[in-house]
Amino acid sequence: MIKGFKDFLMRGNVVDLAVAVVIGAAFSAIVTAFTSNIINPLIARLGGKNSVEGLAVQLGESDKTVVDFGALITSTLNFLIVAAVVYFVFVLPMNKIKERREKGREPGPSEPTDTELLKEIRDLLAAQQSQQTGPRGH
Q1: How far from the centroid of its chain's Cα atoms is residue 10's Cα?
Q2: Where are the domains of the chain?
Q3: pTM
Q4: CA 26 to chain CA mean position, Å
Q5: At a CB cut-off of 8 Å and minimum separation 6, what does 135 contact?
Q6: Please, are residues 101 and 93 in contact by the beta-carbon 8 Å criterion?
Q7: Rounded CA gap, 31 and 70, in Å?
Q8: pLDDT tens track of the chain, all 138 residues?
Q9: What would be the CATH architecture of the domain defined by 2-133?
């Protein structure tokens, strides 16, 4: 069990995953700043003259009754931007590298058929039998 865990760690999957999480978190902060400071004001402006409310609707007297469509749009844009960057910067290049590696590999020897194996066994048995009878020719 320990050997399997060690093999898993040594394959690099854990390191790749850790790097992806750190880069994703850092990039997520950049995207959040972009959408909060550039996209949100634009969305709020679409909602009306009051830039604080934007595309929000207040259903009651309390601040807890505000339905903020702008926040939903912003979160969706955050997700789409992060997903696009992860795909085009990480996934697509890795798939291309994997394709190139697979193209460079030569196919190994093909497995012998059942008939070929049976012929080999027959020949080995015949050779073994002739050795047991010896050079006398019996």
Answers
A1: 18
A2: 2-133
A3: 0.47
A4: 19
A5: none
A6: no
A7: 16
A8: 677 766 665 665 666 677 777 777 877 888 888 877 887 777 777 765 544 456 777 777 777 777 777 778 878 888 888 788 878 887 788 888 888 877 877 666 778 788 888 898 999 999 888 888 766 555
A9: Orthogonal Bundle (1.10)
